[in-house]
Write a structure and sequence with these properties.
The protein is α/β, with parallel strands linked by helices. 36% of the residues lie in helices and 14% in strands. The chain has 2 domains: 208 residues, Crotonobetainyl-coa:carnitine coa-transferase, domain 1 (Rossmann fold), CATH 3.40.50; 71 residues, formyl-coa transferase, domain 3, CATH 3.30.1540.10. This is CaiB/BaiF CoA transferase family protein. InterPro entries: CoA-transferase_III_domain, CoA-Trfase_fam_III, CoA-Trfase_III_dom3_sf, CoA-Trfase_III_dom_1_sf.
Length: 380
């Protein structure tokens, strides 16, 4: 359990970078948290009513929803009404010493306030302006608001997620929002690197639509090559087999057999060596073509095994396999503890730690999410 909240700890790879985070909900806040975990000083500026996700519960702690708490650590906070001239003046003052601005207002909102990229770039030429948007500013869908589930539907993700013969399903976590936040953070880092050479900031945009399309591997690559529209395949991989969930005598397991050697080792362990010699299954392409017959035979062989013990044994042999765990079991797994992937700050905050491991400048956890937000006195 990582409990690193000591203010004397080295502040990380982004120490000295100042970020103003105006964003709400998920993609933008996740970007800001990534930067904050790695040492940036992040100020989260919320509207008078607060970030919408403060109410996205239950569960709640001290009246604030877990959804908000999971995306806003390592930030200080304040409230500011940017719709008025006084609030805009305060923001301009904050930007005087800032390196990065993150926002995900509907396209045109910042411009309407006189705070669009062109205006800000003239006043703050070194500022990196990062926008998380739904669809970008122009084009057939330009300027429209985007939401994770709707973008999953629009970009084809739902069309390949679900059981064969069933209905398309939303991926059970906000994958588009999260990868958009990751790409936004990556874009900010690229812009900071380029600024070190040119001395100039730039506009960085990560849109949910673009990021949703970027997740379509290997389905898009397959379609570009053969023109066949993919369908619902459940847990099975479209190109590899056995790469699927299987029942056992106890818990179900997921086999992720990616090459002929791994398949041979699997067959040896299951005492079904004849399968590895069968021309229908001896090579990866053949296994994919004959997956229905192979699945039936593997189900018979797996029926006598305890899933957890089987998965551990196969992993030791070099065959990727895992029991299908619940969320609580995954978060309490011994390797989760060993990798310090759960972090606590003070008495009230527990969250998922940064997965980005740096040897000299690791992530640090300095501030719990800003649940109490002071209003800025614009007359001060």
């Amino acid at each position: 359990m990582n409990t690193d909240s000591n203010p004397t700890t080295p502040q990380g790879a982004l120490q000295g970078i100042r970020v103003i985070d105006l964003s709400r909900v998920l993609g933008g806040p996740y970007c800001g948290q990534i930067l904050g975990d790695h040492g940036a000083d992040v100020l989260k500026v919320e509207p008078p009513q607060g970030d919408d996700t403060r109410a996205w519960g239950p569960p709640f702690r001290h009246g604030v929803a877990s959804y908000y708490l999971g995306l806003n650590r390592n930030k200080l906070g304040m409230q500011l009404d940017l719709a008025g001239a006084a609030g805009q003046a305060v923001l301009l003052g904050l930007l005087e010493g800032a390196d990065v601005l993150i926002e995900n207002f509907k396209t045109g909102t910042m411009e309407k306030w006189g705070l669009g990229y062109e205006n800000l770039a003239q006043r703050f030429p070194r500022l990196i302006h990062c926008r998380v948007s739904g669809f970008g500013a122009d084009g057939p869908l330009g300027g429209l608001a985007g939401y994770d589930a709707a973008v999953q539907a629009l970009t084809g993700i739902m069309s390949v997620n679900g059981e064969s013969g069933g209905e398309p399903l939303r991926v059970g976590l906000p994958v588009v929002d999260m990868v958009t936040g990751l790409n936004a953070a990556l874009g900010v880092l690229l812009a900071l690197q380029e600024r070190a050479r040119s001395g100039k900031g730039q506009f960085v945009e990560a849109s949910l639509f673009d990021c949703g399309l970027s997740l379509l591997h290997p389905h898009a690559a397959n379609w570009f090559l053969d023109g066949k529209n993919p369908g619902l395949t459940g847990n099975a991989h479209p190109n590899i087999y056995p790469y699927d969930a299987f029942p056992t005598r106890s818990v179900p397991v997921f086999l992720a057999v990616g090459n002929d050697r791994q398949f041979s080792l699997l067959c040896q362990h299951l005492q079904t060596e004849d399968l590895a010699r069968d021309p229908r299954f001896s090579q990866a392409g053949a296994r994919s073509v004959h997956r229905q017959e192979l699945r039936r035979l593997l189900e018979q062989a797996l029926a006598q095994h305890d899933g957890a013990a089987l998965a551990e044994a196969l992993m030791q042999l070099g065959v990727p396999c895992a029991p299908i765990l619940s969320v609580d079991a995954a978060l309490q797994h011994p390797h989760t503890r060993h990798r310090e992937m759960v972090v606590r700050i003070g008495e009230d905050y527990t969250g998922i730690a940064s997965p980005i491991k740096l040897s000299r400048t690791p992530a640090t956890y300095r501030h719990a999410p800003p649940t109490e937000l002071p209003s800025h006195d614009s007359k001060a």
